[in-house]
Design brief:
seven-stranded parallel β-sheet, 40% helix, Rossmann fold, 32 helices
């Protein structure tokens, strides 16, 4: 039998490559002719290494670079080992309608996105790993020619003896945190070590990939250099640990328990790994709850994996995975589950034709302007300006046409906080409320980097990298968009999309159309106005809040805008969660342990346009020297000044300055005893807690002249002016324990309440869900 296999890159490390190698060996031993086609180009050196290391020097094997579908169509069976290859089945069938095409699902179903063309009408059958995946595939795609069979595990060597360790854990995976979630394990180890649950454990992380810098930064941030190592020599005895949200088998897990080691794994959001490994004595399961998992990890360390338990696992492994007739079972399944009908393919395209289509693009202006003639013409500033304007207009029109072809899904929601710089504010609490009350909705969250990814995944939501092509695609698929700032211009807005603007604070400082500086005022308004015109709903906390935003943004020009004076979801969180239990949870999150004796001072400076190397002239270490030892300071930097984090984080063990990407300032409000700030809108959130707010006025006159204020804060209530003398400020902090701000709340934030979010969602979804 002639069997063709199309793989992505058999010369690289990875589960699919290992599966393909194992499959090829089994087919060759059964005397089948195998033509393997590699999607990526390769060298003769690659071939030599593969033949030597894997023993694939067999005359029945041909290793080729994939060039055209026609090559794959000569033979009896084609195995497509990647979901993104399935669409090639149409052309293969066009060349040879009698060949059987098998599609293999190596990745989790969750990662098969709507834009992947599975071409199931021309796939004869599909192989998946487990019965559970099979059932979900049939249900999702209404396609019944599916069989379950584990990937070939012939390389696995079984050890009859159990292996125990008291200290070593290991992860062996690609460093791609959005898929493997290794950052969770680092956070788990941090919590365990900081709280002395287990003090001498070591974690070895082996692999490569784009998230390596993230892991190194986290290890430094948590001061875990003595406990976590990246790409060091593997320990002889270890417990394998995996927190990946989705796996179809996990070769590293299988290799671990085959070798006699224990494993601590997350069962998967789809519970696939639970189905596979639940019966093994060597395996225990994580929950993705740090408090619970810290105890689970401690228990597996103390569990003695004995010979009796190992014998049961050994026999189960032998019966399930070590199968000398793998290729026979596979070919029988292909014959049994293949479609029993002739598949007619109406159109036939060659790869060459497809490639030529891809190359037919309009010449970009940046390339065009390099020609000698164009350079001569463009020396004229007027012509240059006209041509650029024409090109930009043409480019924008084509972009909009392309985006408008994307179909909006009314069950998709897009969330963006501060352009993805962190996950906080009103959008965060709206996202959590949607997840709780609207189970059928898929929630995507804008993320600026892998640190923000971690915070988003903490709540079980889907991060999308800000500004990427995937971001644009996902954004335009979402019916509902909730954000607290301007949307990215290049995504535009679909006709069927609903934009809900929450803004990001009650304005004390003048903004946009109300700025004192006339030039800056006009500049900001011209940039802001077209973005504001996209809004369908605006959330405010009072009638005065609405009046101020209307003045700043000239809202009357947006005739379709609906203002919802329902209150701020971020402040609903404060109203409902100002209690000791929540405070302890927050303390665990940021400081990694609970100590009810600690008192935290929150310092929130406002950003200044000019670059500065310090945020205040106050000497924070001297301030602490005048305060009892249980007082500590948390510095919350503006995202535009996050470069100062290491400066303030290194001043003293009693001064904390966290990664902005991790910080939800609402949580810091709950944690702190008082706040020091200057001209920040944080004031109007913090007043809900009736904790003292000390106003630091180091450059008030300059700030008033340049920016200006809407009103005099001190006429509305009592705000102690923070002394610029550290000793006197320490006395103020100890003396003033609480301030009643109800008068300000009733005037400026009177619509904030314990049901704000639910009321907003009901109004938005009820009026637009069609």
């Amino acid at each position: 039998m002639i069997i063709n296999i199309l793989g992505y890159n058999i010369f690289s490390k990875g589960g699919t490559s290992r599966s393909n190698i194992n499959l090829i060996k089994s087919l060759l031993e059964a005397h089948h002719k195998v033509n393997y086609y590699n999607y990526l180009p390769f060298t003769n050196d690659d071939i030599v290494k593969l033949l030597i290391h894997e023993g694939l020097d067999n005359k029945l094997l041909s290793l080729n670079h994939y060039v055209s579908d026609k090559d794959l169509s000569t033979g009896d069976i084609v195995i497509l080992t990647r979901e993104s290859f399935f669409h090639y089945s149409r052309n293969i069938k066009a060349h040879n309608n009698n060949i059987k095409i098998v599609g293999e699902i190596h990745g989790p179903l969750k990662y098969i996105t709507d834009d992947i063309d599975l071409s199931l009408e021309t796939i004869d059958c599909v192989r998946v790993s487990t019965e559970n995946i099979k059932e979900h595939f049939i249900k999702k795609y209404k396609y019944h020619n599916v069989f379950s069979q584990y990937v070939n595990a012939r390389h696995i060597k079984l050890n009859e003896k159990p292996i125990n360790t008291k200290r070593n854990f290991m992860i062996k995976a690609r460093f791609e945190d959005n898929i493997k979630d290794i950052s969770y394990v680092i956070k788990l180890f941090n919590y365990i070590i900081k709280n002395n649950i287990v003090s001498d454990i070591k974690l070895y992380i082996i692999g490569y990939g784009p998230s390596e810098l993230l892991y190194k930064n986290l290890i430094r941030y948590y001061n875990l250099e003595e406990h976590i190592y990246i790409n060091r020599k593997e320990p002889k005895s270890y417990i394998y640990i995996s927190s990946s949200p989705y796996e179809t088998l996990g070769y590293s897990i299988l290799e671990t328990i085959a070798n006699g080691n224990k494993a601590l794994i997350y069962p998967g959001d789809d519970k696939v790994l639970k189905d596979i490994y639940n019966e093994y004595n060597a395996v225990d399961f994580l929950t993705k709850d740090i408090l619970k998992d810290s105890l689970i990890l401690k228990n597996i360390l103390h569990y003695k994996y004995n010979y009796s338990d190992r014998l049961k696992d050994y026999q189960r492994l032998l019966n399930t995975f070590i199968n000398n007739k793998y290729e026979v079972n596979l070919l029988n399944n292909i014959e049994k589950y293949s479609q029993n009908k002739t598949i007619k393919v109406k159109k036939r395209y060659s790869n060459l034709y497809k490639q030529s289509l891809i190359k037919v693009k309009r010449t970009p202006f940046s390339t065009l302007k390099d020609s000698k003639f164009i350079k001569l013409v463009l020396k004229s500033r007027i012509i240059n300006k006209i041509v650029k304007r024409f090109y930009q207009k043409n480019h924008n029109e084509r972009s909009i046409k392309t985006l408008n072809r994307i179909q909006v899904n009314r069950k998709f929601v897009f969330i963006e906080s501060f352009h993805g710089k962190n996950f906080s504010g009103d959008p965060k609490y709206i996202a959590l409320a949607i997840k709780k009350a609207y189970k059928d909705m898929e929630i995507y969250v804008s993320s600026g980097n892998s640190l923000v990814d971690m915070e988003i995944k903490r709540y079980g939501l889907i991060p999308v990298r800000f500004g990427s092509n995937n971001y644009v695609n996902i954004f335009r698929k979402c019916k509902y968009v909730f954000m607290n700032g301007n949307s990215l211009d290049k995504v535009y807005k679909g006709n069927d999309q609903i934009f809900v603007q929450t803004w990001h604070g009650f304005p004390l400082k003048k903004i946009v159309s109300d700025l004192n500086n006339e030039i800056e005022r006009e500049k900001q308004f011209n940039a802001f106005n077209p973005r504001m015109m996209k809004w369908d709903f605006l959330i405010t906390s009072s009638e005065i809040n609405t009046i101020l935003l209307n003045s700043a943004f000239k809202l009357e020009s947006n005739k379709n805008l609906v203002t919802l004076e329902f209150g701020a979801p971020r402040n609903q969180y404060l109203i409902n969660n100002n209690n000791s239990n929540e405070k302890q949870l927050i303390q665990q999150k940021y400081l990694f342990k609970v100590n009810d004796e600690k008192k935290y001072i929150l310092y929130c400076p406002t950003w200044r346009k000019e670059k500065r190397n310090q945020i205040t002239n106050l000497k924070l270490t001297e301030l602490l020297s005048y305060l009892p030892s249980n007082y500590e300071i948390i510095v919350k930097l503006h995202p535009n000044e996050s470069n100062l984090r290491t400066k303030y984080n290194g001043l003293s063990e009693r001064i904390h300055c966290f990664y902005n990407e991790f910080v939800d300032i609402q949580e810091l409000y709950i944690l702190s005893e008082c706040m020091i700030t200057d001209y920040s809108s944080t004031i109007f959130d913090y007043i809900h807690l009736n904790k003292p707010i000390f106003i630091l006025q180091e450059d008030q006159k300059d700030y008033v002249d340049d920016i200006g204020f809407y009103f005099d804060l001190f006429e509305l209530g009592y705000f102690p002016i923070a002394s610029l003398n550290e000793e006197r400020l320490a006395q103020q902090i100890q003396k003033i324990k609480s301030i009643n701000y109800s008068n300000i709340k009733n005037r400026l934030m009177n619509k904030d309440n314990k049901n704000s979010t639910e009321n907003i969602l009901e109004a938005v979804f009820k009026n637009t869900n069609n």
